[in-house]
## 1
Amino acid sequence: MTATAGTESDTTSDGMKLTLKIWRQANPETPGAMHTFHLEGVSPDMSFLEMLDVLNEQLNAEGEEPIAFDSDCREGICGMCGLMINGQAHGPEVTTTCQLHMRTFSDGDEITIEPWRADAFPVLKDLCVDRSSFDRIIQQGGYVSVNTGSAPEAHSIQVPKDAADRAFDVATCIGCGACVAACPNGSASLFMGAKITHLGELPQGQAERDARVVNMVGQHDHEGFGGCTNIGECTAACPKEIPLDVISQLNKDLRTAMRHGH
Amino acid sequence: MTEFTSDVDSHPDSPGQDSDDAVGYYVPGEPIADTKAPGGPISERWNTRKFEARLVNPANRRKLSVIMVGTGLAGASAAATLGEAGYVVKSFCYQDSPRRAHSIAAQGGINAAKNYKEDGDSVHRLFYDTVKGGDYRSRESNVYRLAEVSTNIIDQCVAQGVPFAREYGGLLDNRSFGGVQVSRTFYARGQTGQQLLIGAYQALERQVNAGTVTTYTRHEMLELIVVDGKARGIIARDMVTGEIETHLADVVVLASGGYGNVFYLSTNAMGCNVTATWRAHRKGAYMANPCYTQIHPTCIPVSGTHQSKLTLMSESLRNDGRIWVPKNKADCTKDPRDIPEEDRDYYLERIYPSFGNLVPRDIASRQAKNMCDEGRGVGPEVEGVRRGVYLDFADAIGRLGRDAVEDKYGNLFDMYARITGEDPYQVPMRIYPAVHYVMGGLWVDYDLQSTIPGLFVTGEANFSDHGANRLGASALMQGLADGYFVLPHTIRDYLADGPFEAVDPSHPAVVEARRSVEDRIEHFMTVQGTRSVDSYHRELGNIMWEYCGMERTEDGLKKAIDLIRGLRDDFWRNVKVLGSAATLNQSLEKAGRVADFFELGELMCIDALNRRESCGGHFRGESQTEDGEALRHDDQFAYVAAWEFAMDEGLGAQKPVLHKEDLTYTAIEMKQRSYK
């Protein structure tokens, strides 16, 4: 470890020993491979990413380049982190990778860690992937067209509470991409369905409802995401528990738009 | 920059400062004044400025370019709005998507003076509460404007489809927040920041589609380009390819957030940093009140040296939880349920019998530190000290029943259980204060323009609205006020001088900026020392937390400055960054940020040393009442400390120049607060 880390906490003095099999890839062009690392003294109170921090400090001390992985808020809301852990997006619990803690694992465990795998999420380095395709889907209509300053008084728009609550529930999507990583087809239908449903539930979203779904689905397909075959792995992996029926709403809105001549 | 500093004569009543604790660490400079705020009645000033700010012909706007750094509430909202107006906007963020900026983590809500509850709220009352909450260290004109445009924010966000909480009649719900007596806080469950940011992000992406905004994600600003005294662009690093890029524009806006991560552990995101604002500071933008830090009392404590960040829990928990530590040090390792009532010290209830567990954030935080410093903290021992106090819901569960407690706090209890592995329905929670927000930032005038012409600063990155302490639910308000409704009006007065002559990328100022970035990266890649960046950052954070945290003293701050200077020198000689600069390299990214945190930390200590008074989040041990309460000295310190960067070459350290901006209140009377 480091020169300052002389004193360990109570909980880490005799922690877990783990075998970690981690995907390493130098850049988007070079093929990657699984590498094996051994880590000792892992505290059950560490988050999964703190465990990787400790591994990286160890690698740095040994002269090996630390493993690149994405994270930012580390409180489960920004959507920046996301790893395939033992083949499951965000690991064995319904939460984000940053909120998964090592007490979920046991001394002696072997843990496999890979990046999100999907054609539309190319690997940039090690465990980091490029999810800018999500931004490009939103660019195609994931908004209400209202310029700053042109909004009417807030109370002029009434929204029934059940619609507002439903809109909120699906608007909690954090755009992490676990749905895509979990889907055997690499489809982003849950991500799109969440946005379509959020704006479709609200009066503000009606004017652009048809164009929104047609354009977003068009971009989705253009990006190389796969089609939905209603397997449901997406919703099982979603850390925010976005329900599967947003995909029904997506399909329904798409049919309606096409009937309207889009 | 002389136009900002020459206005000495307008300050005949400049307050006299008895103390000069920071003597030798700084150079006294000329006073500074805000030359943009109009006079006249406070309620008319913003209208006056909007009218006086020159307009830009729509046909000319597409010939004018804006660089926006940061895509949080203050950045995304401004980029979208300027794009809608027709300017050419480049938007930068270090994250992989604009949607991830740390505004997203704000829980509580956003204040607005809508007075939907008809409970006596008004623009003036929101203004009054915010100035008072800031302990009379904010600028009156700016705060009034903030309160004034707060109502527009709600209209805008609702129209965007932000799913605010609603009542059964379909109208917006409000709640009371942060100890104020009116219900003016709009919220979306505990995820208000997320919903507001997604609204701004969608507006931004709409402009990307419209072709007015270009986004540069996974890009980090590493230098400001100043040509002929004006901000004309940035040097950025593509964090995937490592390429150093020059981006030129007619105006630069920094919306790059706060610098709480100078403490290493904070509730900020891992990537939050001071580099954008610090590089601007080094190029001539003054840094104002850098020592004003908000420390939040109810965070989940540190569990070990592996800790990478701290998580905040809503302080609403203090409404029903009782805070205590054992009376006897020997009990600190016992199961708290086995400690009998008579051996518990409910210290807030004991010291503050009338406010009890609901004392303000700074007092609750400081007392928790005192208890742990006495050796009565609980939870895991980290680096020799147990830093935690109990927040006990046993009484509340007994009084209200478990179901009622679960209704009110269920999501917070779940979050706590996930992070700690303990069930707070069975065992008391452990909490400890954590750095949460910084009120200090780059000095700006009423137009949000810094001391470098053409450099504007919005949101947490500037200093202007919160004084020495920020009230709950007002960070979101300020970010969106600046971005949607203030900056788009004030920036046009600057842009009205355009179109501007294009800057040649071979201009010496551009070449110099680029070379300095390349040299710095080259240095980090070639040092090949023995210590990781994180280990330095953690040690710097410990120094800041110990000496420039909840309680500051003259001796402690001087010691901290010495420690920081020594550690910084070691960092430059002995840091170890592996890998290549021509690829994604997270150690290299962190090295640049930590290098700037060192310099910022030094300045924060100098600022705290100079301000020998206690105000808001700044508590000087030497300035307290007999009861241990914060004591302001309005006669000496009713000013903004605006620091100009300067080096003492002999010392090899900063020796900044202090410019004072007097704070005068015409619409509000200054008062001393009391919680007895």
## 2
Amino acid sequence: MLFSSLTFLFFFLPMTIIVYYTETRRIIRNMFLLFASVLFYAWGDIRYLPILFSTVFISYIGAIFIERSNHKQSTAAVFILLDLSMLFYFKYAGFFLENIGLLFHREWSLKLVLPLGISFYTFQALSYLIDVCRGGVKAQHNFFNLSLYICFFPQLIAGPIVKYHDIADQIDDRKETTDAFYYGFRRFIIGLAKKVLIANASGEIADKIFALPIAEFDAPIAWLGAMAYTFQIYYDFSGYSDMAIGLGALFGFRIPENFNYPYISKSISEFWRRWHISLGTWFKEYLFYPVSVSLMNSRAYRLIKKHFGKKTAGVFLSIVALTIVWGATGLWHGAAWTFIVWGLYNGFFILFELLTGWGKTKKSKLLSAIQHLYAVFVFVISFVIFRSESCNHALHYIQNMFGLIKEHTVYLKLPYYLNHYNILIFTLAFLFSFPIFKDILNVKNKYYQTIINIFIMIAFSLSVFELTANTFNPFIYFRF
Amino acid sequence: MQKIFIGLFLLLLIFPLCFFNKEEISKRENRTLARFPSLIEEGGFNHKFGKEFEEWFADHFFKREQIIALHARIRHKINGRIENDKAFVGDNGWIFEKKGIIDVAPLSQQKGEIEYTAYILKRFDDKFKDKGIPVYLVLLPDRNKVYKEYWERYYTPKPTLDYDDEIKKALSDHDNIKIVSVENDFIRSPDKDLYFYKDDVHMTFEEGRFKIQEKVYNELLKSELKELTVFPERKENVYRINRSTFLSALLGKEGYVDKDVTYVDYQFPNKERYKESEQKSFTRQTNDEWGHITEVVYRKGFVTHPAPINKSFFSLGPCYAEDIFNLFKAVFKESAYIRINLGDNFGQDAKNHQINEIRKLFTLEPNSAVIIVTQDYFEYIEQALEE
């Protein structure tokens, strides 16, 4: 079920709120939230449910074993591998099989339906196991509480990836206040409007252009398609995160932020501190640091340090660690070469910035503007790779953006895509990419609050209006 | 303030549920709305319950039809409409012919016309009978009957004669002519498979067309076609189709770039495969003024077409007729085909060309079939028979 579906808005959500608040006991409220989450997940296809609960069960048992074990790390490794094996089987086995087959000139394939949100909930489960292993938190002995942590419907299917130590206390001890409820509703509507009014409209243009054969569009249209997708993916995913955070607040949870105006970044490193923050911090905490530490203890590192100096060894460490982390980040998004290339592409620019110090200087406005343009350029191109059907398609699309494909038969000219409505949407998308309305929900003045609320209600009405009349309502991050 | 907002918002969430649309049919869209799904199916649990529930919920949502209409009006106000004097591009990217169904005149099929048609057909058939070549006459649905069933406001009183019955009667003594009628199937087919007509002349692409092709296919299989070889279902079978006619008729021939369409693996009535083949098809048509229409054709694969005015029967559209023909081509090794509905759009040269095409049929060898998908322009056949 999509948050931006009529069924969710006018059936699931009101029913869940009403039933939840008719009960006052925490345990019953949690049980009900778990029930609602299971219903939410099973709604799309009940057959995925056992896979979800296998992950929960493995994590539950695993954490208890880890806590009691004298060999915490090896015990944790076993259960982490078990969780990962399910993710690997459903998401990557087909991809690897196909590619191994190619090496032997064979056509091997394994077609499996990807369980909804498997990457997200597996990472939450892993976070829990690692936290317990590190001794940061205690194992959760209440199966239902752990289930609620992993299955909580606002963040179950598309994040934010909530780390266990961030939310463990809230499961048993949280306060549902009017303030939070009020904030939750408003945040939810803002997310809904971002998704429905901006992301969907941008997505329609992007889909049309990306579906065209390369020879049927020229550079301006290629740029328009890339920009449309850049807006779509941001408003789609950040809108969803806003909705998740808002929904969490309705039930007293504080779900961490996932986006912080990424399109104002002046470097790719900054971009990734502002984009999909929960995934970035997950990889930093659970992959980058451990990999860096183990590399520093490696023989290779010591040898390089001895023969070429500390600086060269540091470069070596950065290259290896970043390649691993960004390869994994790409792979996390999907089992396709485009995602791996996309991840490594990001890693390359982060390494470049790390080695050159790019993006850190704030001396002049001009340099700042150039840095911003650089970042926009790099991430727009990265989204073309992300969106393309194959690496070949991405390459041709990028060539087209720079006028490197000469023979065109353009049937549909730029004005066809840029009708008045789309121009309006692009303008809004551009404006809201900047933090001009940041903290708008926290303004204390009552007069302004009333105006803001009127705008929020209009945004809600327009979103419902659009949802009722328009069937185009995809969600990009569902497939991860 | 906070409580007012919360209360108002909760009210907004609950309000539509209290005024759920209980209608089963959408008259505006001429279709049956989704039914409440069953949780249990014959084979056990209905895995698609959630999806079907969402369809039902969306279909019955408070003031849905009005919202859709208002949405379209607002979009048109903002964007304007891409149009010329003959056609316009709809909000959904489809092209609609402007004169549309509003121009439909009351039906006036006369006994004399039917007799004339039957006479021509019999003479035509005489050219094939001796060679053992069957002639198939595909009777397309009477538009008026469809309107009566699904779109009452465009229904006009039934003509005195039922063309289906009358033509069958008139040809009853000529058993070489096989009649394939899809009208009843068309009208009675399950809701989801129906063609439906929106405010403009518009047929569903996915289900409706397939349904009628399937019917024709089944009718043909039921018929005595043992002498014809079924085309082997092989991927390398490639059928080349030229789909220029209707768009050219609609938009003018000048300035057109027109390429053939290649359908690969054209197999019916396997719906999934059909969709695949559709995805592989490419039609590229453009002119300077109407470049944007290309996209419609490219994406949707065909354009619909209204009935010829003042005729009791309507062609489902040249493109559609092409599909029927391709079905025949897909099924039978050799076939011939008459489609005469270019009419007045092309002038005398095109008419002469059409007549010559008909004459070529007279040289057909046994193990062929002749299929006629038209109820108009029998005078062309007559002229072809004259020499």
## 3
Amino acid sequence: MAHSTLKQLADLLATGKTSSVELSQDYLGRITRQNPGLNAFITVDAERTLAEARAADAVRAAGQAGPLTGVPIAHKDIFCAEGWLTTCGSKMLHNFVSPYDAHVISQFKAAGMPTLGKTNMDEFAMGSSNETSFYGPVKNPWDTARVPGGSSGGSAACVAAGLAPAATGTDTGGSIRQPAALCGITGLKPTYGVVSRYGMIAFASSLDQAGPMAQTAEDCGLLLNVMAGFDPRDSTSLEREKEDYARDLAEPHDLIKPLAGLRIGLPKEFFGAGLTGDTAKAVQDAIAQFKSSALPRSKSACPTPGLSVAAYYVIAPAEASSNLSRFDGVRYGYRTHDYADLTDMYEKTRAEGFGAEVKRRILIGTYVLSHGYYDAYYIQAQKLRRLIAQDFAEAYKHCDVILGPTAPTTAFKLGEKADDPVQMYLSDIYTIAVNLAGLPGMSLPCGFDALGLPIGLQLIGDYFSEARMLNVAHQYQLATDWHLQLSPIMRMETEYKALDALLSVPEAGKKGTMV
Amino acid sequence: MSLSLDDVKRIAHLARIRVSAEEVGQTRDRLNGIFELIAEMQAVDTTGVAPMAHARDVFQRLRPDVVTEPDRRAAYQAIAPQTENGLYLVPKVIE
């Protein structure tokens, strides 16, 4: 079924009720039907997917299957995958077939999970609506006139539409959590350094972190088990003991009050002016639900969201201007056709290969790092970053998790903010501080607005508290059904399958079962 | 603070991005809008605060100085815009 969770699919595979090839064909069929309307994928390669699925079935037949062997998954097009076109949503990499695998990709290969395709994204992960993609915007499966959020918008949309049971994403300032909120799915950005950045095309290296996007917190835990781990090829990868992130899920400490003892922080800064009515109400209702099964703690000081946005739009562009200097038309990717000399080639290649938002951020980054402005901008932003991290450290002396909204509004209309970079940046006002501090953060569905668009609850934990956060989210999902609501596209796909089964009845009759 | 047209041209050249004469004005206006947002942070007193370069205060790991990469020149150059005899070609730099 289009809405099966990873857990359910893994059980079907383990009991021999389906095969990886059959499952992959199911999802590829949905992609064929729905992707032309949604534009969630940049690249689909059915032959390659099915070859991986056959290999997974062979592994299972040999009795060597792991927990998720044979379950297919989609990958954000920011991850280099050998033999796959890897564009990062940019014309600059329109012809880049990666010669190697990112660490995350090799982890999923080792787990035996076939790749369903590469998902659409904002160009170089710079955007909050998926409208900066060279490959065109992704449509939100809840309302195709609206954005899915960004930058991991293709990943969020394909999970919400049932085109993939789960997908990978990356989060530099909210790029997993904000699209998860806008598409009504569950997404987790782990603590910085938990997942290797090797082979993940760099945007802002001190902030970028990969994570899972799925229908449930339980699925996110299973995926994090695959993604996390030390990798010597990323100099910021953390050497920690292997952890089972799903370990707490099955065991509530107390059946009546499963979260007894949990201390919740509610920063008043997260409930300020920019928060719209329906979102504010849904988040307050979710908090009330938590209070009934946990120890509430009403106040907690948190960094002023506005300041974190300001610091972020210095630090992230500064790092981006340095990272994106590698795209010069010499070794890979796009090169301009007509040039007089080397400088001319660089300048035209980058002017033609990058889109407007990417160029803006490179220009800002270049400026704040240039002579005479470095101290006033870059160093000042780094000092604010320390203050933000210290504010969180202070808050976690008094609470275990912080709750608040993921995004100030539900999905907005395509084109609504496309011409106003500053308004677009404010979509990430509640998520950015988490990246600056390097903390783990999640978004999970907690309600709908008057138009029926999903609303996300943000859960922020202390460093390395992913297992606890996942359990908190899982307990919430056991008690609520927001995450079980189907987008119109997914509902259509579920009915399509039912229709399919109905039509195949006479076929069964021919085989003699009616005789 | 606000950027002039000459500032934009200078930054664009530093970043090696051609900005056409028609684009300079709009680029400046958009960048100035973003700098207004950034300006908020100047109001915060950060005297005595140490800059934080990284999400976690960790030391850079070192590895033994040995060759770890296999020779994959052919695979890497297969996707290059222009190569010859194992070299990447660019316009003439030195006369």
## 4
Amino acid sequence: MYFGLSGFSIFLAYLLTILSAVLCLIYGILNWNKGDHDE
Amino acid sequence: MFVKITVTVIYLAIVAWLGMLGYKQTKNSTDYLVAGRKIHPFVMALSYGATFISTSAIVGFGGLAGVFGMGLVWLTFFNIFLGIFIAFVFFGKRTRKMGHNMQAHTFPEFLAIRYHSKFLQKFVGLIIFLFMPIYTAAVMIGASTFIQNSLGLDYNIALFLFSAIVASYVFFGGLKGVMYSDAFQGSLMFIGMAILLIASISHLGGLVSANTRLTALFTNPEVLGQIENSMAAGFAGWTEMPTFLSPYWYTLVTSIILGVGIGVLAQPQLIVRYMSVKSDRELNRAIPIGGVFIAMMTGVAFTVGALSNVYFFEKTGKIAVAFAGGTDNIIPVFIQSSMPEWFVTVFLIIIIAAGMSTLSSQFHTIGSSIGRDLFKTPDHQPQKEMFITKAGMLLGILVTIFLSYTLPTVWEGAIAISTSIFFGLCAAAFLPMYVAALYFKNIPKKAAIWGMLSGFTTYMFWILFVHTKEAVVIGLCQALFGVPVLFNNFLAVLDPMIPGLLVSILVTIILGVTLKPDLDEERINQLFSGIGEK
């Protein structure tokens, strides 16, 4: 059991969802002032 | 009832005021179609999110999680990773720059100028005009079902009321007006779903406890009698994926997770938003806002949808779909029966916001597919173009209302099915051509066009003759060949997007490699100006 979930694939889906949201946050913070241009 | 109506009227007044603010700033077709290309990243991200997530996701797919279980969270992962991160970083930046270079205002126009083909603009515009109403109907059904449950109205009256609100809203504004009110509606949706998550989890005694009881439901003797048919089709519990390669697995993985998860990359009403910001910096800043927003919206809807089974079983002895009387009723009935009255009122607003913010962009896209792409006036008469656009919108609204009456009588779980049809079609017909437009300078025009036509044809063939859900309802296969579907094996439950997209990719690659480049090199270099340069 993973936090009460019987399926590892469901646990993995939640884990990847959280990691994807974190990836979006980190990418946004690291590139917050980049890409400023558009004569 | 009085409080609900008063709160709704106040909310609608705020939305109308924001719409009017944008309307006053709308001076030309660039303002109307791409919001003047100067939208703030916070507004753009929330507008993208609020357009992406509709009542279809909350009511339709949330209800589907009540039936299929938490496997739908894979769709949340795809929504964030593909629909936000990959979409913005690898599609958004190039689309924005190329769209600016070519002064494109719509997705069909973008493809037409990139491939120098008027045919593309008209064909893509026609697909949008003909098929997008299926998706708009899904959103309309979701909102009407919730209003029906919340206000105790007849479904038809709820549909009429909501249609009237949306129709009066979308006729003003253009994208500039829509994006400001979208951001307001998106903020409300975020707060509402956060409250729903906390309330549901605490109501069920904590997350792990709720999950454990949901897992235990599958082996409960009182439940087994209610899920016999589902188990025969591959259902393995609400906290477990369906049995590998079973009909349940094919539907969940190919139609719901992949069909919608990949289809989001080729949604015309979302692609146009990349062109509404002035630089890549805005897109970079929109990514974290969009990622967290999607996680909160669909992650909560799917989790609560699945966990509603625990609530319904412990209260009534029935699982969610049995007590609510259908997939699309699960979320409305759960909120109506488990939450305090004040939250039902709040959530009614959330649902109207989720519906309006998506529908306004959908009708906007349908209208511009007629006014800008199919019947653009050769002499550039803005007033005439606007008239045709609004006539197209009106026609789109009428078709949507008709479909919203009929689809719930055709399919159980009509919201999710209708949504996945449009998302899958966009992936099969548009995605390979769109990727090639952004990344392959020398792709021949014919490769792009025939790739699209082959994907579209394969998708339509599959829907008419192979995929049980649609083919049986349409009945053409039965009329021509005397059988409901051509193949009585796994192909009958394989989503049309899978063969459609594969054929489209193959044709695009084969023709792309074998044919000589047929587009003017200097012109293409101008379109790619500022792309891929450091």
